[in-house]
Amino acid sequence: MTASSHRRLCTRRLSRILGALLGCALLVGCGTTEDGLALPSQEQAREYQSAKFTEALQGLVSYFREATNIKGTVFSFGSFEGKKARSEMDTFVLGSPPAMLTKSRSGHEGDNIDTYHPAGSDKDLLLLGSMYRTLAPTPWVSHRTSFPATGYYICVMAGVMTGCKMLTAIELTQKENPNGLLRKYTKHPDGRVELLTGVTLKAFLEARVMIFPDVLREKMTDNMMTQMLPVRIKFAPDGSLDMFEINGVVEGGPSPLEVQVGYDITGTATAADFPPLPSGFDVTHLDEKARREFYDKLGDIKNKIA
Predict the structure, then answer these.
(1) Element containing residue 45 per DSSP (H, E)
(2) What confidence tens digit (pLDDT) does each residue in 36-79 have?
(3) CA distance 121 to 126
(4) Which of 30, 101, 120, 278 could be bridged to 92 by S-S, CB 3.0 to 4.6 A?
C-alpha cells in the first residue's frame, strides 16, 4: 500500500467515525459505552428516522403545492394476466399564470398527443399523432380548457397528476400504518436525501395511480391488496424533488402483478420548451358536443391498441 492510499483509507475511516458521532449528536439522550462514546439506543434511532422521514415527506407535499417552472417525465408500466400497458409523458410548467405542455406517448408508433395550454388562455390545444389524424381535418384541435382561471394547482395537470396520486397512495398507507411499514431516511454526503417506504396495493388502486379495467380488478385477491409496493423518493441537495417512483411485483393472485410508475424532474422549463401558437388554418375548434365525441373516438382507438 502506498502512503497516499494509506492516507485515503485512514481519512475514510475517520469520516465514518465522525459521521457516527455527528449522527449521535443529533439525537437526545444517547446511550453511553464503556469507553465514554455516546451512542443512540435503537428506540432513539427509530424516533430520529421517523422524524426526519416525516419532515422530508412534507417537502414532497410542498413541492406539489408550490412547484413552478418545472420540467419532468412521468412513466408507467403495468403487467397482469397477460395484459401490458406502458406510457410516458413529458411535462412542462412555466410562469404565473402558467403555460403548460404535456407530450404523451406509448410504445405504439403514432400514439402520441401534445397538449398545450397557453398562459391565461381559456382554450387547450392538442397536436395529434398520426394514429389520431382521422379525428380531425387539421393537425391541431382546440376546446375549452380544463384548468381553472384562478387558483392554479399543479395536480390538475396531466402527468403531474400521477405524481400527486402517488403521494396520495403514500398518505393512505401511512394512515393505515400496517405492521412493518418501512420509513427510511438517508442523507448522503453530497446533501442528497433519499426516502424509502411502501404503499399497499389497496392504497395504490384507491389513489388511482394506475387504472385497471374491471375484468382485471376482479382477479386481484384480498391477499394481494395488503402487499407492499416499494417506494423511492430522492431530493436534490437544495431540497427540490429529484425523482419519485413506485416499483414492485405483487404475488398472491392468479399471476404476478408488476407495476412501475415514476416521476423524474429533468430540469427547469423555459420558453424554448413551448411551441409557437399554430395558425388558425391548422386548428379545428371543438364545441362541447364535438369535444365529447372527439374523446369518445380517441378512447376507442386507444382501447384497440391496449
Answers:
(1) helix 42-66
(2) 445 568 888 778 888 899 898 888 888 887 778 889 999 999 99
(3) 14
(4) 101
Measured distance CA(199)–CA(104) in Å, rounded: 26
What is the CATH number that goes with domain 68-273?
A: 2.50.20
Residue 197, phi then psi, degrees to nearest 5: -155, -155
For the chain, the domains span 18-65, 68-273
Reported pTM: 0.79
**3-class SS of residue 181:** coil
Query: Are 49 and 183 in contact, with CB atoms under 8 Å apart?
Result: yes
Q: Is 26 exposed, middle or buried (0-12, 13-18, 19+ CB in 10 A)?
A: exposed
Other C-beta atoms lying within 10 Å of the C-beta of residue 108: 13
Cβ atoms of 123 and 142 within 8 Å: the answer is yes
Rounded to 5 degrees, φ, ψ at 276 are -70, 155
Residues pairing with 257 in the sheet: 250
Whether the link from the prior residue into 256 is cis, omega within 30° of 0, is no
10 Å CB burial of residue 91 (0-12, 13-18, 19+) is buried
Number of Cα atoms under 13 Å in the Cβ half of residue 251: 0
287 CB neighbour count, 10 Å cutoff:
9
